[in-house]
């Protein structure tokens, strides 16, 4: 990809007449759309009958877009296999946990593990890649669309066979599986891998190992499908490859992007859920470290389907979304969709142009995004996002553990987003990082809501602390083995507890017990399934007051080399809990020497970026209330070419500012 900022939309020329296609291309130029995503649902147009494949229509569209200054992200159309592949073949269809096989229609109705589906998917992908891979207008590829957005783990016969093969590779012998899973419980013992079922209908709850491992198996298989498609495309195209994913889908994003070239995501967070929007930018920036991410889909104003709709954005908000995304590392900001669909289940969805060819309620906002994109592009493309000093480890595998064991219907995304919101509101620049991420450059590492901490992760986090970092573990972390069973050597595992210098006395659901935690001069009710500590080599920092274990610790700290390890055994709740958690973060950010933070007001963000010579602050108001930040020294506004004095800088509703400072000389 060339070094520029992209402003794009999903385009479905196969749905429209020649006259409307020509009109749309002209309208795109007027709106400043410089990239279009095409082909993701067009399998039946490309291959209307099995074996009769014709890509000439799409070759022509890509060329016409390119002739008008619009580049293309080409998609493989595998989420919507045609009727000839599905009709009369229930064995090729996705089967849900109740044993119901899907029929034709909607999307994601076929099983992506089915051998015949895989063969035909490979054939259509190769035809597409051969036909358009060398076209100058094709700057990127998207594999499929939103893997596992509408479906989770398939329970078909193909998946059952693959699952049993996967287990044999993982465990080696059935005896080792039985031991790891504890299958003597409820007479679940198996004599062969062929006897191990899928976690389908059951009178009560499945064995935790069975259910969690099946999720991990499913995540691995969908990533293998992406790998297979990417390998085919690379034979014919040098353009980078991605998938439009989300933390809401049933995928392991770290594994999914492992063999792809850049990360992209879809987001439809409401305008009043700024943390739900920004958390994606801070996470997807780190799936492919050093490479810009794409927002492949967001709404111009509102999302909708036949059965739902979201509240439209206020005027001005879309621009703040786009500027924040570009500042936080996005190369592209793209809409779903360009022209409103006249049919189907998403016909009410917001768009740039209506089905009848007129500007929508979001059109003026799109023009504002384009004006901002052109204005900030020279600054953004000549700088890079700053690596944060504070990292929160994010794990989709942990999401699988929590789906198996949700306690009182805990939601992984909501838990992580709420935790993230505390850091965001404190003006701390932050990264969300996958489990396998390099920890160098960070000063404070937080590991919340990860039931299973692998030995590799613990060792890397230990080395991080020994080299001077502060590692905060918990809440809800470390209490399960890799097989989703309970440790038998110590509640959180002997390795972690020895490292932390604690003995976990109890683990139990703390809310409703009247337990109050006190730390940092503050008190708050405690919540969630909690761990109660007896410090050994550690010091008690947070003490339980009242409740079932008064006087015991729920926060401990222990020096570790040049740094320290902190155990957070319970989540403080309510407004008091919010204050206590922020006090904890503030305390250990100071201990770690975190400096990449500002006093920016809530609802406004500062996205720091660097050039070789300068530090840049991109300041964006996201809540429409305006905000302010204190500039530590005089800066320069590269947009207005004016000096900006040190002190308080006000930013209006949905406005943005860029302030440039000389970069300190490194010793």
Task: List the SSEs and their pairings.
Blueprint: E1 6-10, H1 18-31, E2 35-38, H2 43-46, H3 56-67, E3 71-75, H4 83-86, H5 115-132, E4 138-142, H6 157-171, H7 174-181, H8 208-234, E5 241-242, E6 244-245, H9 253-256, E7 264-266, H10 274-284, E8 293-297, E9 304-305, E10 308-309, H11 317-327, E11 330-335, H12 363-381, E12 384-385, E13 390-394, H13 396-404, H14 412-425, E14 430-434, E15 444-447, H15 455-466, E16 470-473, H16 494-500, E17 502-509, E18 516-519, E19 522-527, E20 529-535, E21 539-545, E22 553-560, E23 563-568, E24 571-572, H17 574-592, E25 604-610, E26 614-621, E27 627-631, E28 635-637, E29 642-644, E30 647-651, E31 656-662
Parallel strand pairs: 1-2, 1-11, 2-3, 3-4, 4-5, 6-7, 7-8, 8-11, 13-14, 13-15, 15-16, 16-23
Antiparallel strand pairs: 9-10, 12-25, 17-20, 18-19, 18-21, 19-24, 21-22, 22-23, 25-26, 26-31, 27-30, 28-29
